[in-house]
Automatic annotation (TrEMBL):
This is DNA-binding transcriptional ArsR family regulator. GO terms for molecular function: DNA binding. Pfam families: HTH_5. The keyword Electron transport does not apply. Transmembrane segments: none annotated. SMART domains: HTH_ARSR.
């Protein structure tokens, strides 16, 4: 998961992944879409290949790159767990607010009403 996080930390590599999401591309096709040098694109592709996010295949004289989203799954699971905890926190905050509101309403009705509710 750490290699994947490092790989997607760079905006150029994220852009490459977005390009490969739509279609497989050769290294030359990828390099033509950026203003940085072709060797720099090769280094980014090497990092992506090392993380498992990109697979390459030699077709004739060209190396074709394809996205492999599989290694993103553990990172996605971890991020989902973080947002799920936050969602539960909001639900518990809402429940706490409702409990305080109900207690305040019972106190405002007076002691006789309050006692009757506890004896039922």
């Amino acid at each position: 998961m750490d290699e994947v996080a490092v790989a997607i930390a760079d905006p150029v590599r994220r852009h490459i992944l977005t390009l490969l999401r739509d279609e497989p591309l050769s290294a030359g096709d990828i390099a033509r879409r950026f203003t940085i040098s072709r060797p720099a694109i090769s280094r980014h592709l090497r990092v992506l290949r090392g993380s498992g996010l990109v697979r390459d295949e030699l077709v004739g004289r060209q190396r074709i790159y394809r996205l492999d989203p599989g290694p993103l799954a553990p990172l996605l699971d971890w991020l989902t767990a973080l947002t799920t905890v936050d969602r539960w926190g909001r639900h518990l905050d809402a429940l706490e607010t409702e409990v305080y509101r109900t207690r305040r309403e019972r106190r405002s009705r007076g002691p006789a009403e309050h006692r009757r509710e506890h004896t039922a």
